[in-house]
Amino acid sequence: MDNQQIVKDNLDYTLFSWGKQGGLNPINVSHANGSYVYDRDGKKYLDFSSQLMNVNIGHGNQRITDAVAKQMQEVSFVYPGMATDVRGKLGKKIAEITPGNLTKTFFTLGGAEAIENAIKLVRMYTGRHKIITHYRAYHGATYGAITAGGDPRRFPVDSQAMPNVVHVENPYAYRCPWNSDSIEQCGERALAHLERVVKFENPNSVAAILFEGESGSSGCLKYPPMYLKRVRELCDKYGIMMIDDEVMSGFGRTGKMFGIDHHNVTPDIMCLAKGLTSGYLPLGGVVVTDKIAEHFNDNPMTIGLTYSAHSVLCAAALENIKVIEEENLVERAAEMGLYIEAEVEKLKAKHPSIGDFRNTGLLGCIELVKNRDTKEPTTPWNAKPNEMEATSRMATKIRELGMFTFVRWNWIFIAPPLNVTKEEVDEGLQIISQAIAIADEYVIP
Ligand code: PLP
């Protein structure tokens, strides 16, 4: 089929995520390998965001293809009430790599479903109904999950939002809502604010505090040291469950197996997806502690999905985790993250529009401003289309120069596959530097 016809059929017969359908110009993918995606005209794009921050082991890994094909030959689908070898092995592996006494996993098909089911589980387990989450966070696009996320992607469905979600401000040190002098002070004030909200809401009505293991698409906002540890203490004080959303930050992305591993905290529930299979097939999971699991030995656990624990998806995940472990990708992400931090520091000297760079392992965002003192963003948060000039120009430039990554409002994301090479990072940062030269034009001295 000719190349134009492929794009035309995509546009004529399928709907694309998140936005207006008119005027779309998708990359016409032919194949992908390692850190690159190739289009049908032979142009290659350096994948500097691992697609949706999920292709952790890079593209085209033959081991996953082989594991999936083998599993399909044995058994593809049996209903979730049956036991399979691969399901048990994957469950056991997840219990081994997750912190503390997180032991049992309920498998879903993606991140939003993991969040939905985690919310149902904590409500059943605690008998309470409220869920506290951060404004600057994203937890998925189904009704419950989009309400739980606080960022503007929830606005279009606000009138039908899931009840009993309460949002709090993040400890966003670069723009701290409480006028603090340091990240630690911002953390203290955020914690005081969180506890006030818990008290105002009636602690006995709060089932869970839900947060991202490491903030992702809402701006890579780093938690102040001790923040999550103190959230854990707050949860223990009031009998609240701690739900850790590791959908984006899990499986080595941040230079530890999970984002929360940077904080030495064990949540009551962990939500997984994305890097669980590196996107080769769709799989998510809700991991619960022994204690929660035991509760459901005698109480009905009324959740279920036709495709829960699908054998082929489990096989992809199991092999993917083996690749992450055997190729030391967690350590590599940590190492490469430090290299990127040093290189972006050099870019800062060159580009006055770089206000801040927040990075943990290979989950990083450059924040662009018109002026470093006023911190006025090059594109405002939740900008309307007519305020997006700088963002659109940068995105176009990045694509022209042969790179794919996320440019959202005034943030550029740096989240390549965990096995990205130094040469690829250099190539990527060189392209990003050319895009940031556009943001520099908007700087007001
Ligand atoms: N949670 C976080 C932190 C995410 O970043 C995402 C997706 O980007 C989700 C949940 C939703 O996952 P999915 O798109 O697989 O439903």
From TrEMBL:
State its cofactor: pyridoxal 5'-phosphate
Gene3D superfamilies registered for this protein in UniProt: Aspartate Aminotransferase, domain 1, Type I PLP-dependent aspartate aminotransferase-like (Major domain)
Q: Does the keyword Nucleotide-binding apply?
A: no
Q: Classify the source by domain of life.
A: Bacteria
What family is this protein classified in?
Belongs to the class-III pyridoxal-phosphate-dependent aminotransferase family.
Q: Keywords, A to Z?
A: Pyridoxal phosphate
InterPro entries from the UniProt entry = Aminotrans_3, Aminotrans_3_PPA_site, PyrdxlP-dep_Trfase, PyrdxlP-dep_Trfase_major, PyrdxlP-dep_Trfase_small
Query: Which protein is depicted?
Result: Taurine--2-oxoglutarate transaminase
Q: Which organism is it from?
A: Ichthyenterobacterium magnum
Q: Does the keyword Plastid apply?
A: no
Check the record and name the PROSITE patterns matching this protein.
AA_TRANSFER_CLASS_3
